Structures are given as structure tokens and as C-alpha cells.
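Sequence, please.
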């Protein structure tokens, strides 16, 4: 049965790609890959980047130190992807009604989660085969790293299920999740020297292998006991009843046009269904303001604010995908209205740009009072506005271009953002190329949404 589920999933991916990726899209993707290989080949001559460090004798030791320090990041990324795997979708009800054992569904979801973090797993294990050490040491470090990474994968899946578990009250599950999260991150950060010793000292390889694989086995055993497939929170629901609902609506005023009405509708929905988004925005604004007040030079404020804004734009744009998830449930009614796809796209883009820019308002207002400003301040304002506009464009392209398959919109959004950030640090021309392609795909996304056939 597990093999049948996996084959069905692969066939679903294949049919999806055949339906949504025409010949022109494949040509554009191929063009991007050619440019990527060209820039990668030219980079040693252009910016002095080289792969010679892989052949250095001390590379295994240096990588082992970095590996232990990057474990918290691997855990957080794995947990985010586990939350993506456990998001309630249209297949939950169907899968829950199949005569499939609980263990089979658990394995199925773990394999789907493992496919999402496969690249991270390979990046965390394959480099241990590089170097001039003996074959036994390479194998020991490879298996040791695999044991600890699997333990973190299972632990992150447990934490994601705790967050999604709808059988418990929100307050209790958040408390359990938060306390466990703090303990896990504390152990990963404080235990970095111990992980390094396991990897670097040959006489500790055996104890490290025992510890890593024991933790992995215990995490898997605990996961199989508590995991209940299909029990997740219902995130995209209709309006919740309550006395405060009507009272909330009147604070948004009356719309002055179609775009304004669509923006106000989305704001109402977010205020009811995703109020944590506004808490995150307030938290981002506070972090930006405190970081700006702590700096002594205005250039440091510019740099730190742009970095923090980019990070929170990434989080907020992913959180805003709930708008498309909710819209997918009422797609037939939405497309029956005499509203063009261009109008919908413009309204959603304006809302996303405004919400992503809002956390920067306090720090922008603080800078003229604390520092002497010049031409650099205008460049900072341009960058502070350009970043949310870019994130909003990618967000709308992914949502409307893949509608109503929103979970793949999230994948496309995160891949696009990751490539843009990666190219910016190593091959800036690649980022400019992706920006140009995203502008060309605005019309493609709108046409897909305009002529989408809804049954």
C-alpha cells in the first residue's frame, strides 16, 4: 500500500507538470539553467570564487565544526517543511477514508517530508567523503551525521504535528510546542562542541554513532506512538461566529472601488482567521526599531534593517498564502463575479506590498531624528520599498499562476526567493534575470487565473 501511495503521488506530480508547464515555460527554465551554469563557470574569473578549499587537508576538520554549528538551522528548516507537509489539503479526507494502517500513513508522510529535505540531508553528509582521511573515518563520519540528522528530522516532524494537532486546545499545544522548541534549540546550540568531538576524534566515533542512531530510533518510536494522520487544524474556514465578528468589520470602513473592496475583504479575513500575522508584523517592527536604536552609525542601520526586513518578508509572504487557500474553496463563486484577473492581482499585490512594508515605518521614521541623513537615506528608502514589492510580485505570481494548487505555489515562491538570495551573494546578474522573468510572468499568472476552468 505504501508503494501504491508513492506511485500515485509521483503520477500526480507528473500530470501536474504536463498540465501547467507548456513548452515555452520549459524553454524559459532551460534558459535559466544555462545562464546558471555559465555564471558558475565564469565566477572564478569574475569574483574570485573557487572550489579549491574542498581539496584542502583541513577541510574535514573545518566542515565538522561548521556542521555542528548549522544543526539548529537544519532543524528549523526541517520543521518548516514538516509544517508544509502537514498542511490540511483536499487529499486529507480521501486518505483518511482509505483502509490504510496508521503505520503506513506515517511512513508515507515521513517519506514526503524526507523528499523535501533530501538536499539538506545530502549537503550534511556527502562532504564527509571529501578529504585525505581513511575510508573507515569517512564512513564513520557519514553514518554519524546521518544518525543525528535523521533524529532531527523525526524531532522536527513531532514538533510540526504538535503545532497542527487539532485535538488539543490552542493554548496548551502552543505551550507544549514552545517549551519543547526552546529546549531543543538550547541543546543544539550548547551541544555543538560535543557534536564536534564526535566527528573530529576517532576514538569517539563509536560513541557518536551509538548516540546518534539511538536518538533517531527513540524519536521515530515516539513519533509512531503519538502521530495521528489526518488530525490537523482547519486553517481555511468560513467566518467564525461570535459577537466580535460584526464589531470587527465596521472598523474597516466602506470601500471606494473594486480594488479597495478586495483589499478590505482580505484584511477582514486575515483579522479573523490569521490574527497571528499582525502579531508577527508588530514583532518585526519592534525588532527593526530596536536594532536601529542599538546602532551608532547610520550605515549600520541601513544594512541591518535591509537584512531583517528581507527575513521577515520571507516569513510574512508565506503566511499570506492563506488568502489563496481560502479563495480556492470558493473559487467558483469568485470567478463568477465580474472582476478581471488583473484587478484581483493588483489588489492582492497592493495588500501584500503594504503589509510587508509596514514593519519598516518605525525605523524609517526614527533615522532622521537620530542621524544626519544624506543621499544614502534615499537609496535606503528605495531598497526598503523595492524588497516588499519584489516579494509581493513573486507571491502573487505563485498564487495566481498555480491557482488552485496553492501548496505548489508555496514551493514555487520559496524556490524563487531562495534562488534570488543565493544569486545576489554569488552571481548578482542571476537575481536581475529572475526579476525580469518574474515581471514577464505577471501576465502569464493573470491569464491562468482569468481563463481557469472551475467545475
Amino acid at each position: 500500500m505504501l508503494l501504491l501511495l508513492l506511485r500515485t503521488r509521483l503520477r500526480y506530480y507528473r500530470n501536474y507538470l504536463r498540465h501547467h508547464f507548456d513548452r515555452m515555460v520549459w524553454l524559459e527554465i532551460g534558459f535559466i539553467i544555462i545562464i546558471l551554469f555559465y555564471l558558475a563557470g565564469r565566477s572564478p574569473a569574475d569574483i574570485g570564487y573557487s572550489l579549491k578549499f574542498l581539496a584542502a587537508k583541513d577541510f574535514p576538520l573545518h566542515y565538522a565544526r561548521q556542521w555542528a554549528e548549522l544543526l539548529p538551522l537544519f532543524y528549523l528548516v526541517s520543521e518548516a517543511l514538516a509544517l508544509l507537509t502537514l498542511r490540511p489539503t483536499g487529499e486529507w479526507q480521501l486518505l483518511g477514508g482509505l483502509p490504510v494502517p496508521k503505520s503506513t500513513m506515517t511512513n508515507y508522510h515521513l517519506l514526503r517530508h524526507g523528499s523535501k529535505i533530501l538536499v539538506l540531508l545530502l549537503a550534511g553528509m556527502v562532504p564527509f567523503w571529501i578529504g585525505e582521511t581513511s575510508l573507515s573515518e569517512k564512513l564513520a563520519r557519514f553514518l554519524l551525521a546521518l544518525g543525528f540528522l535523521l533524529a532531527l528530522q523525526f524531532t522536527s516532524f513531532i514538533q510540526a504535528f504538535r503545532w497542527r494537532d487539532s485535538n488539543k486546545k490552542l493554548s496548551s499545544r502552543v505551550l507544549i510546542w514552545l517549551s519543547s522548541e526552546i529546549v531543543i534549540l538550547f541543546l543544539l546550540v550548547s551541544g555543538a562542541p560535543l557534536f564536534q568531538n564526535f566527528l573530529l576524534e576517532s576514538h569517539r566515533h563509536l560513541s557518536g554513532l551509538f548516540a546518534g542512531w539511538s536518538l533517531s530510533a527513540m524519536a521515530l518510536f515516539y513519533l509512531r506512538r503519538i502521530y495521528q494522520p489526518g488530525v490537523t487544524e482547519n486553517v481555511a474556514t468560513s467566518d467564525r461566529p461570535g459577537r466580535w465578528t460584526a464589531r470587527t468589520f465596521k472598523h474597516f470602513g466602506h470601500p471606494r472601488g473594486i480594488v479597495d473592496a478586495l483589499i478590505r475583504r482580505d484584511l477582514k479575513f486575515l483579522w479573523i482567521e490569521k490574527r497571528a500575522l499582525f502579531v508577527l508584523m508588530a514583532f518585526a517592527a519592534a525588532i527593526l526599531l530596536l536594532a536601529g536604536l542599538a546602532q551608532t552609525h547610520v550605515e549600520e542601520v541601513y544594512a541591518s534593517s535591509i537584512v531583517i526586513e528581507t527575513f521577515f518578508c520571507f516569513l510574512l509572504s508565506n503566511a499570506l498564502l492563506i488568502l489563496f487557500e481560502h479563495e480556492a474553496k470558493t473559487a467558483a463563486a469568485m470567478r463568477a463575479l465580474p472582476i478581471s484577473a488583473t484587478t484581483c492581482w493588483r489588489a492582492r499585490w497592493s495588500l501584500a506590498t503594504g503589509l510587508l512594508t509596514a514593519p519598516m515605518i518605525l525605523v524609517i521614521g526614527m533615522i532622521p531624528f537620530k542621524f544626519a541623513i544624506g543621499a544614502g537615506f534615499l537609496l535606503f528608502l528605495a531598497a526598503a520599498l523595492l524588497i516588499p514589492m519584489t516579494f509581493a510580485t513573486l507571491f502573487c505570481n505563485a498564487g495566481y499562476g498555480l491557482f488552485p494548487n496553492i501548496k505548489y505555489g508555496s514551493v514555487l515562491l520559496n524556490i524563487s526567493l531562495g534562488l534570488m538570495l543565493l544569486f545576489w551573494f554569488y552571481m548578482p546578474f542571476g537575481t536581475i534575470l529572475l526579476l525580469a522573468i518574474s515581471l514577464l510572468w505577471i501576465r502569464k499568472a493573470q491569464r491562468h487565473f482569468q481563463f481557469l476552468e472551475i467545475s
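Residues 25 and 31 are 10 Å apart (CA to CA).
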